[in-house]
Amino acid sequence: MPAEFTRAQVEAIAALAHLELDASEVEMFARQLGDILAYADQVQQVDTSGVTPTEYGVGQHSADRPDRVVPSLPIDDVLGNAPDSERPRTGGGFFKVPRVLG
Amino acid sequence: MNTPATLAETREAVVSGARSAVEVCREALGRIEAADPSLHAFHTVTAERALARAAEIDANRIRFRTAPLAGIPVGLKDNICTNGVRTTASSRILETFVPPYDATVVTRLHAAGAVLVGKTNCDEFAMGSSTENSAFGPSRNPWAADRIPGGSSGGSAVAVAAGMTPLSLGSETGGSIRQPAAMCGVFGLKPTYGRVSRYGLLAFGSSLDQIGPITRTARDAAIALGVIAGADPADSTASHEAVPDYAAGLTGETRGLRIGVPSRLLETGVDADILHAVRTAIDTLRERGAVVVDIELPHAKYAIPVYYLVATAEASSNLARYDGVRYGLRDAQTELGAMYSRTRERGFGAEVKRRIMLGTYVLSAGYYDAYYLKAQRVRTLILRDYAQAFERVDVIAMPTSPIPPFKLGERASDPLQMYLADIFTVSANLAGLPAVSVPCGFTTDRLPIGLQLTGRAFDEGTILRTADAYERDSEWWKQAPPIATR
């Protein structure tokens, strides 16, 4: 675990998280993430051999329900929040995004 | 003007006809108008809708005669979806988001006769302990306007403390209901994981998140919990465990109740006034017949690192949905990847980015086992500590916050210092246990102090009964800041 992250490391994490950080943020996070992880590293002192990991504090309840078709939200209401969308005359609707393939 | 009325008093006045729901609603809106410019508890005030709903309740008094929240004005944390009412999570990325549906808690409040008066300020995506991470400016503490109200449900706590609403809903991932309740001198309840449906709550840490009430008293929180708790087909984590009549369980009985105090945990880092107030409160319960037992929570000191590894991992995954495609902000770009990255860069504030970065790192290849999985194993040990303690005691008592509300800006540049103040609250979230914060005094600077009581899973009844019993022998909950009675 690095005490301080390099700019390249911070940029690599940012790329994984789809964040385009500016230069001052890269510098700030290099320092802060190092500090926080150095602190968090104390979990390594705990002997956890044979201890199973906990995902949920209180047991997950089996919550099956019948697989019935029920009305979903109106398409216009849902697309109403979209930055860009289209309702073709042929029916249905979709969210629009910038071109993916060249 | 007197101390603001409780939820129970207000409901009684509406049901008996002593006051109309419209009159109660106008008073709440009036208080918001008078005090909110200086406190900033609310992002959005739904005055017109609220008055229309109040009029509907007045017009149907017979139907609402048995409604548990008839005519009660409610503030909702702005990360809880409201159909047709803007829900921002205090983030630029959702600045214009208007949900097309209500969260389950909203539907239940509505059916119980509550009147939604607005959406309250919080830290961005509920990430923070001071509301300073709100993209739209911090809330201020009604007891000292130059200080933080706590967070992340700061606006919800301010609304109740300043007498704007007798009930607010907040949400918790690591103390975000209890800590602001303590810092504002009001009552806060984090229910057991799964006690309340989270359908319509903007997700932060899915194994930790829970919605709960902020009120003036334990009785008011008991009434509100009875309304919002219970199974929900729209949330598979909402438990089918039966919902008891919490208010009926408030008998004042504390004889033989076993209260555990983790003395060793309280030895370092707790403000002297807070420690004194909490010890005095425990003595009050002892005088009522409770038995005080010293307990050990040996892994509690690891709760903060475990919490910030687990919660950030879950957050980085939950916040992946904010990508400029289906709702919220979009940075216009010709290439999809650039659109995602620019949108998220512009839309998220520093703390949210910091947590997404941390979570992405601890989940990334090569670090998953060392951080995320390791944290989950230590989480198991924290759970075991509680299980062992609850074999000997019924309730665990400690401070809610180790420090009183600090001045705005004082800790903003040091995120780690900010995280450390969550030491007494995060364990209950990691273990999924219910916990309350009840007012138990003031510092010498007249800043509120909260006593925290943690209970067994799905045993909200015992901590509410203990807190209610304490309120019967204390006057702290009756105190209101000058701005609430002006």
Word description of this protein:
The complex is a heterodimer of chains A (102) and B (486). With 102 residues, chain A is mainly α. Chain A has helices at residues 7-16, 23-40, 75-79; strands spanning 85-86, 94-95. In chain A, strands 1-2 form a two-stranded antiparallel ribbon. In chain A, strand 1 and strand 2 (94-95) form a beta hairpin. In chain A, helix 1 (7-16) crosses helix 2. Chain A is flat, with a radius of gyration of 23 Å. The N and C termini of chain B lie close together (6 Å). In chain B, strand 2 (73-77), helix 4 (104-111) and strand 3 (115-120) form a beta-alpha-beta unit. With 486 residues, chain B is an alpha/beta fold. The mean pLDDT of chain B is 97. Chain B has helices at 7-16, 21-39, 47-59, 104-111, 154-161, 178-184, 218-228, 272-287, 303-318, 336-347, 350-363, 368-392, 415-420, 426-431, 460-472, 482-485; strands at residues 42-45, 73-77, 115-120, 167-172, 187-190, 210-215, 258-261, 291-294, 395-399, 435-442, 448-454. Chain B has 16 helices and eleven strands. Chains A and B meet through helix 1 and helix 2 of A and helix 9, helix 10, helix 11, helix 12 and helix 13 of B.
